[in-house]
Amino acid sequence: MVRDGAWPEPRVVASGLGFPEGPVYLGNGVVACTEIRGQCVARVDGSDVKKFGPTGGGANGATLGADGEIWVANNGGLSLGWQGYWFSDPFVEGRIQRIDPDGTITDVSGELPGELPHRPNDLCFGPDGLLYFTDPRNWEEIGNLKMGRVWRMDPMSGAAEALAEVPNFCNGIAFGPDPSRLYVAQTMAMKIMEIEWSGGKLGAQREWAALPEGFPDGFCFSSEGDAYVCGATANVLQVFDSEGCVMYTINFPEHSDPTNCCIGDGTLYVTCSGTGELLAFDLELEPLPLFPFRN
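and the corresponding structure tokens:
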């Protein structure tokens, strides 16, 4: 990876995407990403872009399942970038969806329990084989946010329960190198939170990293334990070491709005919602294996 010297220029892998988010590396240079405003998931293989959809609402975060299916956190139909708000028609309750390799889309979570609204944002599998997802609640009213929630869902039955409350717009989510630690972006506070995990229960929360600029959105970990954090609205991506200290700040052009990232075959892939692009940085990185693939 880049420890010294200049950060390489990115390659444009795909363009013309409708507010891309949730990149997922599928292997052999193939990347899938959600399109919130496109209400679909795009599979990008070189110059070939195949779209699975429509998902309805707004396909936001995504992660890969053990059988090659893609799991999607659908926020119900909204995005917020430098262009302002976008709302789907109809604007619906959020849900968790599964997209099979043949493109079949299934609403898995059904009606989530608890107080409305539900706005699933990002998701990941945990050490217990269940899905964990963030729900920042009513961010269609960004100045009057309700308390956010972290949920756990059985991918087979769709049964879900709220495990923890996280204020100030809980966003990106991932398990770190230590599987007893879950990390959650606290966007409006410009922080990444570390939450204790044990036996499917979430415990104490503490600040792990603070962004010097930008609002944390999606993020991913390398095998070395470094975190690559997209700082939406500030047009930056910041790299933190395993102790939560900033190592690099990578600047993007104005209105790029990097939203999320993933690592595959040495490459860091970044979705830029403002320009509608999927970018690739060739860094010789090794990803931290995701659940359910981590041994």
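(Above: one complete record from the training split.) The chain has a mean pLDDT of 95.
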